[in-house]
Amino acid sequence: MYWKEISRQMNDIGMGSFIIVFLIAIFIGAVTAVQFAYQMGGTLIPRYYIGYIVRDMTILEMAPTITCLVLSGKVGSNIAAEIGGMRQKEHIDAMEIMGVNTSAYLVMPKILAALIVIPLLVCVASIISIVGAYIASVPTGMFTGAEFIQGLRSWFDGYNVFIMLVKAIVFAFILTSVACYQGYFVKGGSIELGKASTQAVVAGNILILIADYVIALVLTA
Amino acid sequence: MIRIENIKKSFGDVEVLKGIDFEFLEGKCNLIIGKSGAGKTVLLKLLIGLLSPTSGKIWYDNVDFTKLGNKEVRKIRMEVGMLFQGSALFDSMTIEENIRFPMDMFTNFTKKQKDDRVNYCLERVNLEGVNKKYPSEASGGMQKRVGIARAIVLKPKYLFCDEPNSGLDPKTSIVIDALIASITKENDITTIINTHDMNSVMEIGENIAYIHEGILGWTGSKDQVLKSANDLLHDFIFASPFLQKLKDSVE
């Protein structure tokens, strides 16, 4: 029963968020490349550095943080509203009476699904972001494809991917657990449900940003 | 039998229940009645353990429910069925899946045993053939009947109903009342109904507790309601001008 719920949540979080993650990743990559090309114009820094900067910027910061901030808005508010609605419609009470451990049945599958799916989405986002950078800069003649690829292949450090995955896992836990908490303990009517949903996004985003700083500090010390 | 002893419940500084003693009789339709805000729903939630009392005891036969751990509470809940005010059917599940849910949680029945039991319960509430429909495709009265089917699927010893007639027209309310009363008799269930529907009181109220502002205002049966000299009860029963006129004309 729990596995069925986990797979349903994985589908909701993963497939349900793919298009928004795809769009954001491709534009973030494109903008990063265009702006670095602009900043480095007229300097002595080799142009292939842009590929290198886009790659590390994407892996270390853009893919995990921006993706999870967006997911906090989409998935977090959805989870808070879903669980809060169940609380208000007495579904949670009904489950308790039917012997269901509601925190395990409602919260755990969401958190586990997010811990599996969100790191995958972040990996996909980082690849799409780099592709976005390529599309925005190479065909428009900012620099050549060979320069971009040379930049991507320069000074690659696998440890950065590890940092990205750590961020993705921590952010996934934060955004789902905060949303579940806000929804599970909602009291009152539709106004309170709206507030809980908003609170889930705001608190989730703030905690993600704090966690981002702490992880950066700890893992790069 | 369920007995409550000096039950008190406060939320912050507000004391909702101020010490209630009452015995819910076995195999009978026990009604908790009172105005909105009198504390009926709080009392019902205390009885099924969704809330904990500030003080007092709740006895299920000879077991003090307030002292039980999670395992023992789960054991008692296997014997409890509950019909919620808004039916509380799970929107993402079909009617059949809703009714099967308690069996999935509490039993090791085979699929065939579960299907047979679901079909029996649906038949019992006169809803054959709606297995694959979703709750959103059912009317309010149908949803209540599905709620009853789900509540009786594990053959409970105790059936709790929170405002079973709320939001229903008078005719459907009578059908629901009759259904609850007949299921209570057939299965010798201790049924506890929280209501302020006077039709229910006069039709199925075998053992009634009238709650007034957190205290027990009156107890008795449907036959004693009209004869009672209790002013608080009379204020409640004849609150509607129509019933007041009817009473005056009879007198």
Write a short abstract of this structure.
The complex is a heterodimer of chains A (221) and B (251). Chain A is an all-alpha fold.
Any overview of this molecule?
The complex is a heterodimer of chains A (221) and B (251). Chain A has helices at 2-40, 49-88, 91-97, 102-137, 145-153, 158-184, 190-219. Chain A has one domain. Chain A is elongated, with a radius of gyration of 20 Å. Chain A contains 7 helices and no strands. Chain A is mostly helical and 221 residues long. Chain B has a domain at 80-155. Chain B has 10 helices and 10 strands. Chain B has helices at residues 40-47, 70-77, 95-106, 111-124, 140-152, 170-187, 198-204, 222-225, 231-237, 241-250; strands at 2-11, 14-24, 29-33, 55-60, 63-64, 80-83, 158-162, 190-195, 207-212, 215-220. The mean pLDDT of chain B is 89. Classes of the chains: A mainly alpha (221), B alpha/beta (251). Chains A and B meet through helix 3 of A and helix 3 of B.
Structural class of chain B: alpha/beta
Taken in chain order, the helices and strands of chain A follow as HHHHHHH
Spatial shape of chain A: elongated
Strand order of the largest sheet of chain B: 6-7-8-3-9-10
The largest sheet of chain B, given as strand count, sense and whether it forms a barrel, is: 6 strands, mixed
What is the N-to-C succession of helices and strands of chain B? EEEHEEHEHHHEHEHEEHHH
> What's the alpha carbon Rg of chain B, rounded to whole Å?
19 Å
> Tally the helices of chain B: what do you get?
10
User: In angstroms, what is the radius of gyration of chain A?
Assistant: 20 Å
Which runs of chain A of at least 5 residues are low in confidence (pLDDT < 50)?
none
Helix content of chain B: 40-55%
Strand content of chain B: 15-25%
Query: Helix/strand-derived class of chain A?
Result: mainly alpha
Number of DSSP strands of chain B?
A: 10
Count of strand segments of chain A: 0
Oligomer: heterodimer
Distance between the termini of chain B: 38 Å
